[in-house]
Amino acid sequence: MNSIAGRLLRGLLISSLVGGAVLTIMVIYEYGLLSANPPPLWKTVREITEHVLVPFGVFLLLFGTGALLVVRRVEGQLKGIAGDVRQAAQELRSYQTPPDALPRELTPFTEAVNELTSRLAAHARRQEAFAADAAHELRTPLSILALSLDKLPAEDAAPLRAQIRALSDMVDQLLLLARSNAPDTAQRRSLIEPDALARRIVAELAPAAIQAGRELSVESDNPAPFRGLEEAVAASLRTLIVNALRAAPEGSEVIVRAGPGANLAVIDGGQGLTPDELDKLKARGIRADRAPGGEAGLGLAIADRIADSHGGELVTCQPAYSGLALRFPAARPA
């Protein structure tokens, strides 16, 4: 019995046994039930019933009922606060328990939890600020490097320019990831339509697909809207499409599927990734998309973390298809 009500019931049971035994001894001593001339048996039973069982039973019934009502009331308050905490967790915002929301005996616990959430929120704000500052600081030397490449022969500058472009994209993704994890993310989120987002990103990457000798198309399968930072989700989807264009055989088709539900899948004709392989690529410290062309980055790892900050996940489409999918929780009806 780990519940408060169970412990209360066990305590009342022990108290009733001990109290009943004490009262029985007192009645036996008071009325000389064990003396040389004890009263008749029927009188003994009546005395114990009237002076022990009935009063003690009424007391236990009233006390137990009152205690159970108090426990149920506190349990209801805890469930209400738990619901508020879950809602705050879904919206990625900190939560402070009101000081008068729970009994005074729980104040040390609520104060400790409030202090913890305050420190976590402050840490998240510092992380976002650091990522933003780092991104801005990195953009300047990358721009200077890109300009310096103009002095090199075109054939030498091309691969270096591609690496700088990949680094710039990674910096942008890190900044979007930091914004996705910020405490005030809920206020900045909007309703995202998977079909519209997929068509926009495919239109952006269509020239690159043609240049790479691949076909890029969009399919809609009863998509459902979800809430999030659209540019962060767009960056994750863009990473999946770019990886698919590199992995797909030349002349094959890469399909971006919106739906079913709040899902965005990128299906290619490559070998695909098993769940174990995808987990390894998503692990911290693993380069997620070292491609044949030499580009390197943290693409899949960042895409997975952006999805996670939206309550979603990056999963493999196997065994049904070869590809990856971003799954998000559908938006609640207004």
Care to describe what's here?
- The chain is an alpha+beta fold.
- Among the domains are: 4-90; 189-334, Histidine kinase-like ATPase, C-terminal domain (Heat Shock Protein 90, 2-Layer Sandwich), CATH 3.30.565.10.
- 62% of the residues lie in helices and 10% in strands.
- The chain is built from nine helices and seven strands, in the order αααααβαββαββααββ.
- It has helices at 4-30, 41-90, 107-148, 154-180, 185-188, 194-212, 230-247, 275-282, 299-309, and strands spanning 190-192, 215-220, 226-228, 253-258, 263-267, 313-316, 323-327.
- Strands 2-4-5-7-6 form a five-stranded mixed beta sheet. Strands 1-3 form a two-stranded antiparallel ribbon.
- The longest helix has 50 residues, at 41-90.
- It is elongated, with a radius of gyration of 33 Å.
Q: What's the rounded overall pLDDT mean?
A: 79
The dominant shape is elongated
CATH superfamily of the domain at 189-334: Histidine kinase-like ATPase, C-terminal domain
Helical proportion, percent range: 55-70%
Give the percentage of residues in beta strands. Answer: 5-15%
Distance between the termini: 41 Å
Q: Give Rg in angstroms.
A: 33 Å
- Quaternary state reads single chain
* Structural class assignment: alpha+beta
According to DSSP, the number of beta strands is 7
Low-confidence regions? 287-297
CATH topology of the domain at 189-334: Heat Shock Protein 90
Largest sheet: 5 strands, mixed
CATH class categorisation of the domain at 189-334: Alpha Beta
- Strand arrangement in the largest pleated sheet: 2-4-5-7-6
The ordered H/E elements are HHHHHEHEEHEEHHEE
